[in-house]
Amino acid sequence: MIGQAGASIFNEWFSNYWLVLVVKAGVVLGFFLVAPMVVGYAEHKVLAHMQSRLGPMYPGVFHGWAQLVADGVKFIQKEDVIPRAADPWVFSLAPAVALVPYIVIFVVIPFSPQIFALNLDVGIFFVLAMSSVNVIGVLMAGWSSANKFSLIGALRAAAQLISYELPLVLAAASVVMQAGTLSLIGITEAQARYWFVLTQPVGFAIFVVASLAELTRPPFDMPVADSEIIFGAYTEYTGLKFAFFRSSPSRCGWRRRSVRYRSS
Questions:
Q1: Cβ distance 215 to 153 under 8 Å?
Q2: pLDDT in tens, 154-193
């Protein structure tokens, strides 16, 4: 399957190994920062129209296109507060543990036969394994905050994420069995004649539901039930650390949609 997919476009443009590595890392990081902003803006506007609202209108003048940029500037300006009773090292490290795996995941997601950073033979399981690391970050945040509401939210989140990881993996495994490869590029090429969603509609539905649960989207928003436990594991976080945590579901959502498309 790697031979059929051909070389990455970056390997064709540059011959130096380290230059290719730097360019790939830069492209992945740039896409990681930009693409979820587009998805987040679309979500703002779509949900607003579903609720008969206008949504963001003023930032950027034209229909509020710069709303998420303004939110980012706002988070940068906020004070970084660490509770006195919290474990400062674990408290500060938790957002990175939750966010960094989602950056790494984009390395193996192909956008065309030539536009990809790396074609792993175990691509789909690499994605599923890296996305599971988020549970550790959430638990670190809840435990280190020295807040009972944070700890309850972290335990809820961990229970929900672990529970829905199994059906997610089983749905992905059925696609792997039909495609005969774990490579995301190979799975995409195996659907040249027809999409696997036509032969596995039940598996696709399970994958969608499990993805929503891992994103803690309604009706699976129990880990961040603000009416019960304030804001779950993220209650004590402010500024950029809070932004990193809130960015993780957005990046995860984009990644889930990418994998879902490649797998169906």
A1: no
A2: 888 888 888 888 888 888 888 888 888 888 888 888 888 8
pTM score, two decimals?
0.68
The domain of 153 spans 2-262
Longest dimension (CA), the chain: 60
Q: Cα dihedral angle (60, 35, 206, 202), rounded to 10 degrees?
A: 100
The number of folded domains in the chain is: 1
Q: Give the SS3 label for residue 113.
A: coil
Asked if 189 and 178 touch (Cβ cutoff 8 Å), the reply is: no
Q: Is 185 exposed, middle or buried (0-12, 13-18, 19+ CB in 10 A)?
A: buried
CB atoms within 10 A of CB 218: 8
- For residue 44, what are its two tokens? 């703002």
| 223 CB-near residues (< 8 Å, 6+ apart) | 138, 153, 154, 156, 157, 160, 216, 232, 233
pLDDT tens by residue, 37-48? 777 777 778 878
Own/partner pairs for 130-133, CB < 8 Å, 24+ apart? 130/101, 130/102, 130/104, 130/105, 131/101, 131/102, 131/105, 131/214, 131/252, 131/255, 132/161, 132/165, 133/97, 133/98, 133/101
Rounded Cα distance between 75 and 239, Å, is 5
Query: What is the rounded CA–CA span in Å between residue 111 and residue 114?
Result: 8
DSSP state of 215: T
Q: Is 137 exposed, middle or buried (0-12, 13-18, 19+ CB in 10 A)?
A: buried
What one-character DSSP code corresponds to residue 3?
H
Task: Please say whether the beta carbons of 185 and 116 come within 8 A.
Answer: yes
